[in-house]
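Bug #77: duplicate submission created two jobs. Keeping one. Sequence:
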Amino acid sequence: MKLATLNDGARDGQLAVVARDLKTAHIADGIAPTLQAALDDWAFIAPQLEALYAELNAGRARRPFDFDPARCMAPLPRAFQWADGSAYVNHVELVRRARGADMPASFWEEPLMVQGGSDDLLGPMDDIVLAHEEWGIDFESEVAVVTGDVAMGATPDEALRQVRLVMLANDVSLRNLIPPELAKGFGFLQSKPATAFSPVAVTPDELGEAWRDGKVHLPLRSTWNGRLVGQPDAGTDMVFNFAQLVAHLCKTRNVRAGSIVGSGTVSNRDASRGYSCIAEQRSLETIETGEPVTAYMRFGDTIRIEMLDEKGKSIFGAIEQTVRKLER
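Kept job's structure:
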């Protein structure tokens, strides 16, 4: 099924079921008021949402309405946890190679993961609002999953069974703020502003054969200022799948329902597939010519992130954002 959160003026929005073709939707408040409420009692709530989803797709729902992604908040407007992995080691390798850094063998053996801010997650059409272009504004096109409860020490197979939903993310990075932050010996903070998510989160079964081995085997399209700059396959070159990423997160802690785990920037070794973040393109340019050519995003720039099924239909709806200057 496909689920969305509509902006009703409340912090956590209003849960809606969305038709498979993304054309209509139905409020689910008679079943669960919010997505987090549904996740908290998934075994009881999910079958009721699935029944409404079936009625909506069959044209039998009582109060359907036109689905408008502009009304959407993030599926989870605030989450108990947002942990972003770096599952595409090719991306890490390119970035490190461009700056002359060694590639530790451990990067191929255990996932990298960072704890992100989860108190203010952006909707699919919310602006990217920042104070300075000089911070090095970069989009990062990713796939993410939402979990149920996962016990500390869960195996990858156990972790995968707790993946409830799949969605897309734009995990914006401020590239020029990253080096001084990391030089302090801790992690990302100011260099990672609010992340945006797709209008719709879907259960893995909606992906059909594209969901296998804990990966989404479909191209992820990034269109920057109206130009398609990347469509790498999200299943190809994903060194650590979502089973491994979630298991890594719960190695020393319980992971609670409503936790979001990201894949990191989707990247293929085949450079002809394009890029999912500007930093990767700049790294390739540096490796080839000695210096980067592609500039980071400017105020007024737009980014569209979308995944299509084998018939060319949008699965999650599109993230469509514009970079805007902070006005105080």
